[in-house]
Amino acid sequence: MAARHEEIAEELRRAIDREEYTVGSRLPTETDLAARYEVSRGTVRQAVAALTSEGLIGSRQGARRVVLASRRSQTFEELRSFAQWARAMGREATGHVVSSTYRPATPEDSVRLQLTAGTQVLHVLRVRGLDGEPVLLERTVYADWISPAVERVEPDCPSVTQRLYEDTGLVFAYGEHVIDAVAAGAQDADLLGIRRTSPLLRVRRVTTTREGRPVEWSDDRYRSDAVTFSVHNSIANNALARRAP
Amino acid sequence: MAARHEEIAEELRRAIDREEYTVGSRLPTETDLAARYEVSRGTVRQAVAALTSEGLIGSRQGARRVVLASRRSQTFEELRSFAQWARAMGREATGHVVSSTYRPATPEDSVRLQLTAGTQVLHVLRVRGLDGEPVLLERTVYADWISPAVERVEPDCPSVTQRLYEDTGLVFAYGEHVIDAVAAGAQDADLLGIRRTSPLLRVRRVTTTREGRPVEWSDDRYRSDAVTFSVHNSIANNALARRAP
DNA sequence: GAGGCCAACTTGTTCAGACAAGTTCCGCTG
DNA sequence: CAGCGGAACTTGTCTGAACAAGTTGGCCTC
Questions:
Q1: Residue B76 to residue A225, Cβ atoms within 8 A
Q2: How many angstroms separate the CA of residue B110 from the nearest CA in chain A?
Q3: Which of A45, A67, A89 is the last residue in one of the domains?
Q4: Domain range holding B201?
Q5: Are A58 and A108 contained in the same domain?
Q6: pLDDT (tens digit, 9 = 90+) per residue, B172-213?
Q7: How many domains does chain B have?
Q8: What confidence tens digit (pLDDT) does each residue in A58-75 have?
Q9: pLDDT at A198 over 70
Q10: Please, where are the H alpha helices in B82-209?
Q11: Percentage with pLDDT > 70 across chain A
């Protein structure tokens, strides 16, 4: 939060949040904002570009910017870390490791994690819950170079992300998520406390470091009555894609 | 495609696509690119910012940019329009209207479409398929001001989006999508040709014009064996959020 | 050979100015 | 009063420059 344009973006977010600019109303012009914050127009543009990509405001050449929404989307960190998300909602994240074993990387593992096939990778199955109620089943495969650090994390640690950061300085920076729906299998039903064949929201994701090196990939299954995902997009900025297998 | 920075972005995308820059390799420096395309560094930065937000490349201060992925995500238009998506995959979009009726707006309708409660809104139920195979059930509610134009569209029109653009100049510009999983109900199962209680991927979305005015909201249910969604994100740019109801 | 330090390199931030392109709204005309 | 035209306004594009901040790789030392 050093850069001036980030400070301005944050101030604008807060102003929208406390309805100083209401949904549907128009933001001040770039020139006005530049004068108010005593920066150049370019710096203001960087700030409003951030809000635009977050879907908070809309932008069209020639017309003043319009406030589209007030509640801001989550940060990458809140999405990445189950525990940080729970805390932001004022609920407690719980969780425990069901199993943790080393297996040779399958062809799929080696492609996703950019490893040579047969490397020993760590498979972890975790159940995670909100205030004790299980809502998520995480089947995660960790790359060989991070596996030892993952093993050192105690089984009921609420935030693995936090722990890995403290221990190794690891920062997750990029993610790719594939979302679909599956029927609960026998193990899923048992661990989540639901009936078999109940619909589950499945998110398969790969997370990489800032250098673009894959750290983990995971098959996460959410109880669909407990969790949904939301995505914002626009002509100028689209992160969402529909795919046929 | 007039702006120079968009042309450069497109050239870089194509270069990545044909593996001139391979995944994991480094992009030329901003100064190099500026010289090559004979533009200023600022213009190059606009171009690479687009690729960064698309998740194609990663960026860190001080280090050269890294190519993270080769396949590019869809444009907003391809996501918005089922027909355009199908065409981009080389498949044929089919579809027909099952029912189309006017009803007074419920409180939920009026909130999502920013209308006064009780306004007559158009409910349309469509089945859509790829090469004749049904994959999607669309339950859409249109705002009153666009309903007449929607009614004029013939029931088996493959691209409603295209049609509305031609007839009224309407452009969809922003979207908010909430994704979860549901079990197929009796009507869902019947129209999609699947068993009852099969898991379906549900996407509830609101689409708005460039002015930020809501046009439609829809409950879309996809056969989970036929369609998935993918989302890309990063620390710098996150459009995805996890929510508890 | 291992490790640390430094110089060169690269991206991030910010400025000021100029013109292009699209929107809005007022006032005029029929 | 409806519709049109145009002036004023606002965002988009692009340049060139300067400095800050972070990364990389090679050289030097121990």
A1: no
A2: 15
A3: A67
A4: 76-223
A5: no
A6: 999 999 999 999 999 999 999 999 999 999 999 999 998 888
A7: 2
A8: 999 999 999 998 877 788
A9: yes
A10: 82-88, 107-113, 147-151, 160-168, 186-192
A11: 100
In Å, the largest CA–CA distance within chain B is 62
Task: Determine, for residues A235 and B199 on separate chains, whether the beta-carbon distance falls below 8 Å.
Answer: no
Distance CA B97, CA B88 (A): 23
Interchain pair A69, B176: CB under 8 A: yes
A86: enclosing H helix or E strand? helix A82-88
CATH number at residue A217: 3.40.1410.10
Q: Is the minimum CB–CB distance between A187 and chain B shorter than 8 Å? A: no
* pLDDT cut 90: percent of chain A above it: 67
Alpha carbons within 13 angstroms on the beta-carbon side of residue B111 total 4
Binning chain B into helix, strand and coil, the percentages to the nearest 5 are 30, 35, 35
Beta-bridge partners for B94: B129
The answer on A211 and A149 residing in a single domain is yes
Residues A48, A163 within the same domain: no
The whole-angstrom separation of Cα A147 and Cα A134 is 25
CA distance A183 to chain B (A): 6
C1' (C17) to CA (B225) span, angstroms: 56
Q: How far is the CA of B41 from the C1' of D18 (A)?
A: 13
Q: What is the CATH number of the domain that holds A11?
A: 1.10.10.10
- Taking CB atoms and an 8 Å cut-off, how many pairs form between chains A and B? 249
Query: With bands split at pLDDT 50, 70 and 90, how would you rate the model's confidence at B77?
Result: confident
Contact residues on chain B for A237, CB-CB shorter than 8 A? 53, 239
Residues A172 and A205 in one domain: yes
Residues A192 and A211 in one domain: yes
